[in-house]
Write a structure and sequence with these properties.
The chain has 167 residues and is mainly beta. It has one domain: Lipocalin (Beta Barrel), CATH 2.40.128.20. Helices cover 10% and strands 38% of the residues. It is built from two helices and nine strands. The protein has an eight-stranded antiparallel β-barrel. A hairpin with a 7-residue loop joins β4 and β5. The radius of gyration is 17 Å and the shape is globular. It starts with 20 loop residues before the first helix and ends with a strand. Involved in the storage or transport of lipids necessary for membrane maintenance under stressful conditions. Displays a binding preference for lysophospholipids. Keywords: Cell outer membrane, Lipid-binding, Lipoprotein, Membrane. This is Outer membrane lipoprotein Blc.
Length: 167
């Protein structure tokens, strides 16, 4: 019988204590992210626009510029999981008629957010995805570094983080 090497597992990811969803609405610019397959065509000016819907859901419109200079968009929906101030949401970009399938929904947890709602980090329980978003296309270096320190303390591999170019 072999012996397996024990790897230190990071503690369970904790979202922020509460989220004021109406205050979160609006435009967020992507500052950095873990590279992923569904954004591989995006080369610059990536942003997300969140808009509250009458039924309590959130419309999500992601935009970016591709290498050939074209703007591409993905329209999706988000829903809060739990209480009205829950920082845990789920998002889907599949067609609405597939929304009954659990696998079309992805976790979207707000894990770090400044009190002014200007800089946010979003991930999911397995830490496979990570986005740093800001209300403006540029972030003060000291503010960004402080966020990176907090993300490192939460078990994120900062070497995987890729800056997102803006014009």
């Amino acid at each position: 019988m072999g012996t397996a090497m024990a790897h230190a597992q990071p503690t369970a990811l904790q979202p922020i204590a509460s989220l004021d969803v109406p205050r979160y609405m609006g435009t967020w610019y992507e500052i950095a992210k873990y590279p992923n397959t569904f954004q591989k065509k995006c080369v610059r000016n990536t942003r997300a626009d969140y808009q509250a819907q009458p039924d309590g859901s959130v419309q999500v419109l992601n935009r970016c510029v591709t290498a050939d200079g074209q703007t591409t968009e993905a329209l999706g929906a988000a829903r809060q999981v739990g209480a009205v101030n829950s920082p845990k949401l789920q998002v889907r970009f599949a067609p609405a008629w597939l929304s009954f399938l659990p696998m079309v929904w992805g976790d979207y947890w707000v894990i770090d957010l400044d009190p002014q709602y200007q800089l946010v980090a979003v991930s999911e329980p397995k830490r496979e995805y990570l986005w740093v978003l800001s209300r403006s296309p540029k972030v003060e270096p000291a503010t960004y570094q402080a966020l990176l320190t907090r993300l490192g303390q939460q078990g994120f591999d900062l070497k995987r983080l890729e800056l997102s170019p803006q014009e």
